[in-house]
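Lecture 7 notes: from sequence to structure.

We start with a single chain of 189 residues. Read the sequence below before looking at the structure.
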Amino acid sequence: MGAIVLAGRNSGAVTQLAAAAQASAQYLTFVLGGEAYAIGISGVREIIEYHDPTPVPMMPGFVRGVINLRGRVVPVIDLQVRFGRVASPVSRRTCIVILEVVAGDERHALGAVVDSVTAVIELPASEIEAPPAFGARVRSDFIVGMGKAAGGFVVILDASRVLSVDELASIAAAGDGPAAHEGAEAAGA
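Now the structure, written as tokens:
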């Protein structure tokens, strides 16, 4: 009987932990073009100091190139250019966030250039609003929601859409014209 009671107590604790996990989530916050963004921490593998990626010919303008990360070739995406903006200049605080993106049953490591990383925050679900229907400076399908943090809002991005391996591959295969390269050239990529 004691074991059954103990199991009952443990299952209650597990249920409470599961409810707490659904009630809030952790996000990595960062700055991009002077605006605050966040991405779910579960897909973040590491944050590294920025160093110039090796350029790869015939890639879309938002692909700055590739880096060698412990023997792995990792494409580096300029999020500013991906969002249709001019690339941010590289500064001492610029870094590359290494993310793991799932495509089908494969996992891919991709780097995302950000102006600076701010913090890891925990946001309860009650503090996340639906994405705006209009007026966003980023494609609406890239946005999960708007998190209320530090007296303002942070745009919560959907990494699987922003860094969709399938979409990135189809853009690369189709070519992207000279306009997309202007942003990368402005950043010195």
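Residues 25-186 form a domain with the OB fold (Dihydrolipoamide Acetyltransferase, E2P) fold (CATH 2.40.50.180). Keep this in mind for problem set 3.
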